[in-house]
């Protein structure tokens, strides 16, 4: 079945710097890759997603890149701010009728003021 | 749009009791709802997939008789933890997938923190 690996598990950056989180997936048939941000005790919130027919997508300070050949995708946050501090999860879809998502293990991002 | 609510937000119960958690899509019809469990500092683990009007599909290792799921309408799914024990204490989160374009997208409820004494 699908397996999603996420690195790093923790990431500490200075405010204003960029942060990059990487994920790899195993099922070449996966075609949908969302990223969620979860603050402590809160629900995961979708921040950006990408489908397999594009290689990059950007939304203001957040961008996601996808390399289908290598089966990896990355989240890029530029000009980080303290409010970006949270746990970020990547996910990959299961290519069947269920539309299930398999989540990575999460990255705890700390943005130091 | 795409708002999902969950009730209750927090519940404390005695060992052996059953607890029901509701998940509602407030402004869209949810073809499919998913139930996850999240232990502290861990990722979301899918428990089951719930489709309106049909039986839920459980992930390997999840006891269907212990975690009863009912998806009676396109806006409501319920998870009942039967005969709860302390090891069932966790953060339970639902998500919903709607109809139409972008049907892969899942929107999450706020979660229910269950504590079994």
Q: What does this molecule look like?
A:
Chain A is mainly β. Chain A is built from no helices and eleven strands. In chain A, the strands form two sheets. In chain A, strands 2, 4, 5, 9, 10 and 11 form a six-stranded mixed β-sheet that branches. In chain A, strands 1-3-8-7-6 form a five-stranded antiparallel β-sheet, with no helix packed on it. In chain A, a hairpin with a 2-residue loop joins strand 6 and strand 7. Chain A is globular. The N and C termini of chain A lie far apart (41 Å). The mean pLDDT of chain A is 94. With 117 residues, chain B is an all-beta fold. In chain B, 0% of the residues lie in helices and 54% in strands. Classes of the chains: A mainly beta (113), B mainly beta (117).
SSE topology:
The complex is a heterodimer of chains A (113) and B (117).
Chain A: E1 4-7, E2 10-14, E3 19-25, E4 32-38, E5 45-51, E6 56-59, E7 62-67, E8 72-77, E9 86-93, E10 101-103, E11 107-112
Parallel strand pairs in A: 2-11
Antiparallel strand pairs in A: 1-3, 3-8, 4-5, 4-9, 6-7, 7-8, 9-10, 9-11
Chain B: E1 4-7, E2 10-13, E3 19-25, E4 30-38, E5 45-51, E6 57-58, E7 67-73, E8 76-81, E9 90-98, E10 106-108, E11 112-116
Parallel strand pairs in B: 2-11
Antiparallel strand pairs in B: 1-3, 3-8, 4-5, 4-9, 5-6, 7-8, 9-10, 9-11
